[in-house]
Design brief:
By secondary structure, the protein is of the alpha/beta class. It is 36% helix and 18% strand. It contains 8 helices and 10 strands.
Length: 222
């Protein structure tokens, strides 16, 4: 199953491409410029063992076309809606996995939610009801994703309208070696996306003796 990652030349996109390809899933890396995506794809492929799946570079439309079913949106919030407008006509029959967090411009320790309530809901409103939009991977550090010597130190909350696509996305993210939890419908993204600036605040605090922390769901007594 080929997976598309739009915004694949950014830190989160590159980390996800490395992780999924290492897990055996071919990745179509998308960017506004196909040549740039191809260059980054080659660099990422060189970092992986020969047993890894292929990472290829495309423009965004080409990456969506190469995807069998799943398209991950990993662009900055400033380009979120414009990117979706550009590929809207190519997403029929596919699931969009929106990992974007609407961080406040100039202050990533806060969110600036759109009128719809969250980036996930904004994407669903823009694309219409026939294209399932699932929110996931909002709280995973890009630094952690790119450190292939380290395990991903968090769980992943998956939300969106529709149980069947939600379960498919949960199965997808579990290829990263993490536990995925069903967090409910798209409205839950308002809470999940808002956790990210809190983690950023904690991770940059001089009072905290670590950085790149993640979110874990713990069972009682453990």
């Amino acid at each position: 199953m080929t997976l598309a990652i739009l915004g694949g030349t950014g830190p989160q996109g590159k980390g996800l491409a490395l992780r999924f390809a290492r897990a055996g899933l071919p990745v179509a890396l998308g960017s506004r410029e196909a040549a740039r995506a191809a260059e980054i794809a080659a660099e990422l492929q060189a970092m992986l063992p020969e047993s890894a799946a292929a990472i290829t570079g495309h423009d965004n439309a080409g990456a969506v076309a190469a995807a069998d079913e799943m398209v991950i949106l990993a662009v900055p919030w400033s380009g979120h809606n414009a990117t979706l407008e550009a590929i809207k006509g190519d997403l029929a029959g596919k699931i969009l996995v929106d990992i974007v967090v609407p961080l406040k411009e100039g202050d990533p320790k806060k969110v600036d939610m759109p009128p719809e309530g969250s980036a996930t809901e904004a994407a669903q409103a823009l694309l219409g009801p026939d294209i399932p939009v699932m929110g996931a991977l909002h709280n995973v550090s890009a630094h952690t994703l790119n450190d292939l010597d380290a395990d991903i130190n968090c769980d992943v909350l998956v939300c969106g309208n529709g149980l069947a696509p939600r379960k498919k996305v949960m199965e997808l993210v579990e290829h990263l070696g993490v536990t995925a939890y069903n967090a409910g419908d798209a409205e839950a993204a308002r809470c999940i996306e808002a956790i990210t600036p809190i983690l950023i605040r904690i991770n940059i605090s001089k009072a905290v003796p670590f950085s790149h922390a993640g979110l874990r769901i713990w069972a009682p007594g453990t």
